[in-house]
């Protein structure tokens, strides 16, 4: 689940542990169709046999908001509600398979391409989540510095190089 990957990455970058409770809370929010209050989530988690204090839920929700994975909503009820940000974000992601760093980006060209492809294939798009896996700058550097760099990219494996 990408949202969970992103949360894990956020915690990692901020040197915070991914506790079982944090994971359960995040998962409950990510799976929820509608916005949830802290009480809603406490009930939901209790139903799953997870006994998590409301203060912990509240703090975890704040982390999710800081990570850009959830949104805080105030309907003037005297308490806040939260909803995950999975569906409406048309962002794309670069994910480092070595350190887990996630870079979020958005390019209009991607949106245009998506619209082109969708209309060509007759498809009504609801959401998009493009994940590009590879190495971030730091990890790519660490990867290549250990190795002897030989002739730059011997592309022509065979005799034909034209
Ligand atoms: Zn990396």
Structure description:
This protein has helices at 2-13, 20-31, 38-47, 54-66, 108-121, 137-145, and strands at residues 36-37, 70-74, 80-84, 92-96, 102-105, 130-134. The protein has two domains: 2-84, Arc Repressor Mutant, subunit A; 92-140, Ferric-uptake regulator, C-terminal dimerisarion domain (Dna Ligase, domain 1), CATH 3.30.1490.190. The radius of gyration is 21 Å and the shape is globular. 43% of the residues lie in helices and 16% in strands. The protein is of the alpha+beta class. The strands form two sheets. The chain has a three-stranded antiparallel beta sheet. The chain has a three-stranded mixed beta sheet with strand order 5-4-6. The structure holds zinc ion. Zinc ion is lined by residues 96, 98-99, 101, 135-136, 138-139. Residues 96, 98-99, 101, 135-136, 138-139 line the site of zinc ion.
Strand fraction band? 15-25%
Structural class: alpha+beta
Number of strands: 6
**Low-pLDDT sequence parts:** 147-162
Write the H/E string, N to C.
Answer: HHEHHEEEEHEH
Helicity range = 40-55%
CATH fold label of the largest domain: Arc Repressor Mutant, subunit A
Major beta-sheet overview: 3 strands, antiparallel
Distance between the termini: 44 Å
Mean pLDDT: 82
Question: In the CATH classification, which architecture of the largest domain applies?
Answer: Orthogonal Bundle
Q: For the record, what is the CATH homologous superfamily label of the largest domain?
A: Winged helix-like DNA-binding domain superfamily/Winged helix DNA-binding domain
The number of domains is 2
CA-based shape: globular
Strand order of the largest sheet: 1-3-2
Radius of gyration: 21 Å
């Amino acid at each position: 689940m990408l949202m969970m990957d992103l949360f894990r990455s956020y915690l990692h970058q901020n040197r915070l542990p991914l506790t079982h409770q944090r994971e359960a809370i995040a998962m409950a929010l990510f799976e929820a169709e509608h916005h949830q209050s802290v009480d809603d989530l406490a009930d939901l988690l209790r139903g799953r046999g997870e006994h998590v204090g409301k203060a912990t839920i509240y703090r975890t929700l704040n982390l999710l908001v800081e990570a850009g994975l959830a949104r805080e909503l105030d309907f003037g009820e005297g308490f806040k509600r939260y909803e995950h940000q999975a569906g409406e974000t048309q962002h794309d992601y670069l994910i480092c398979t070595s350190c887990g760093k996630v870079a979020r980006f958005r390019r209009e060209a991607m949106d245009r391409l998506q619209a082109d492809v969708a209309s060509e294939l007759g498809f009504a798009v609801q959401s998009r989540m493009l994940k590009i896996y590879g190495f971030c700058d730091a990890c790519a550097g660490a990867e290549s510095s250990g190795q002897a760099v030989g002739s730059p990219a011997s592309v022509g494996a065979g005799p034909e190089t034209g």
